[in-house]
Amino acid sequence: MRVEELRVAVDGGEIDTVVLALVDMQGRLQGKRFHAPYFLAEVLQHGSEGCNYLLAVDVEMNTVGGYEMSSWERGYGDFAMVPDLATLRRVPWQPGTAMLLADLAWLDGSGEVVASPRQILRRQLDRLRGHGLTAYAGTELEFVLYRDSYEDAWRRGYRELTPANLYNVDYSLLGTARVEPLLRRIRTEMAGAGLTPESAKGECNLGQHEIAFRYTDALTCADNHVVYKNGAKEIAAQEGMAITFMAKPNEREGNSCHIHFSLRATDGSSAMLGDGDGDGDGAARLSGTGRRVLAGLLATMCDFSLLFAPNVNSYKRYQPGSFAPTALRWGTDNRTCALRLVGHGQGMRVENRVPGADVNPYLAIAALVAGAVHGIEAELDLEPEFTGNAYADASAARMPATLRDALVHWENSVTAGSAFGPEVVAHYANHARVELAAFDAAVTDWELRRGFERL
């Protein structure tokens, strides 16, 4: 949607509200709803402001210590929300509404807000462009759908909820037909918001589904991801249902967010494809750049795991035999590996199977780009591809087992420091410490069941 179209729609009474949204550390949309004529008269040219605590709170919006950029000592001031007009779109599930995303800058003109997820991804893409390359990505978000409203789920303490499907509906057309009205509404209304839906399918967990969207350039992919995730929750709520994107909502299969990733040269051709047609096996399919990219992704996976798996719950997903990778190997169409080489010809790409659906897409894609740049600049050699069951490979490097382990890798990583800078490393390290402190202080249902009477 162009600004001229927005003006016409506002003048014609079609649009009365404009949402200006920023993306927080958790990958959520925060922001303001503006009266559309006011937005056109004032915000479009001058932007708006938001409290800088939006990048310095926990998931429950509690103010917490340890952040250099935002604190009680600094007075919790504002930063500027600068509209990105390229993200302007209609919001079909909210009548009369348009939306656009904001980049963040300091009000004193000192520059961008370094810890902003959208700015973090932009900087990594700039580094990649220095090598004459452009990143493309597509995210596959799984979710579990419940027939309870969010309010009912809250009141029940998220216990004894009713999944939308009562058995495994992986690829089942009969099973997914039970919830097709909601899935169809999400697909069609996301298309109305400028996304390109590809398909919907059932998954293994009870009530679990996935809606896939067409790949695009990396920044647009991340933008589409957060619009979809927020919008899917809003649409489900309107239907009296609830969607969760938790990485591991119960003891069954977790919710993944596989990220398909590729690089293109300045002429638009694949920079990762070898001299053949991409139909061979193993490293022969890859160009020299492609081999270095995969080597860089493998070499940085542990160091950057905090960006791929940002929450305590994220690490519950990594279970052998669960299709969530534990072994840091790469293979051709091998779902037991962390990196799976898929596609043919110009569509050849690597699928990173590490992130869960709780991931912040800007940070995860930024980590992929930074890993690729590391592999290119360090001229890393790619290990042989893995065939067979990578879960059983005792010699393979492993994902960190917990958020605490991931934090150690992140803070001690020379590569993370050089790629993202000390401010970003410190900011997201503090985010992890805040989550760990909250978890360490909690008493879980598991502890109560085991110990209330019997200990």
Give a verbal description of the structure.
The protein is of the alpha+beta class and 455 residues long. It folds into two domains: 110 residues, Glutamine synthetase, N-terminal domain (Ubiquitin-like (UB roll), Roll), CATH 3.10.20.70; 322 residues, Creatine Kinase, Chain A, domain 2, CATH 3.30.590. It contains 14 helices and 15 strands. Strands 7, 8, 9, 10, 11, 12, 13, 14 and 15 form a nine-stranded mixed sheet that branches. Strands 1, 2, 3, 4, 5 and 6 form a six-stranded mixed sheet that branches. A hairpin with a 6-residue loop joins strand 5 and strand 6. It is globular, with a radius of gyration of 22 Å. It starts with a helix and ends with a helix.
Write a short abstract of this structure.
By secondary structure, this protein is of the alpha+beta class.
